[in-house]
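Before a colleague's protein record goes any further, I have to sign it off. Thanks in advance; the entry in question is below:
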Amino acid sequence: MIADNARTRILERLRAAAPAANEHVTAPTLSRRIDVHFDGRRAMQPAADSTTLAEQMHNALQAAHAEVWRTDEAAWPALLAERLAAAGVRRLLFDPEGAEGAALAGCLPSTVEAVGYQRPIEDWKQELFDTVDAGFTVARSGIAGTGTLVIVPDAHAPRTVSLVPPLHVALVYTDTLHADLHAAMRAERWQAGMPTNLVLISGPSKTSDIQQTLAYGAHGPRRLWVFIVERGGEANASSPRAAGESA
């Protein structure tokens, strides 16, 4: 009887909160309402420039246990190569044909082997899982407020690159950072052509499924390195992160 009464009360509240039967909200109308909501929120705050967004991105990623460096376009390949060697990475999976991949390949020491994704996973699954130490990807953009990387996998850098190796290394440019998810969706016009697999990454893989104990690496990389790169300029020389120190 008690359960029936509780169920009745819940259903009554749901019916009362539901829109009227004749109120039909179209997708464009709903989109406009969402735009007005977020525009109103942003209007209450000063507009953030790329430096502010980069700082927010760094802080949010660090809070999620990622290791973060802020640097510039000229310095990041050598800095990353140095970090990979120091961390004992022997095989790095990435797209060597992209601009960033080519720049990185030219700086890798002989101790780090460049591995391209050139075969179907069925042909080298065991090798991939057993011998590749890290994967490198270039994010399409970033969401500063939550420290989220927006990655669009493709044939040369599929989802496997950021999912399978125990270390995921990502590069994101400061001029691609957005304040929040809504700003990213609007600026990049996600509604005009959503990719089949758009990946949002906020920190290394973690779970609390087992006895509510936080564990890293259960469903993906247990470590995440992020290089926030200023395109065509130099990072703030007064910042230790610009010298390659993780903060």
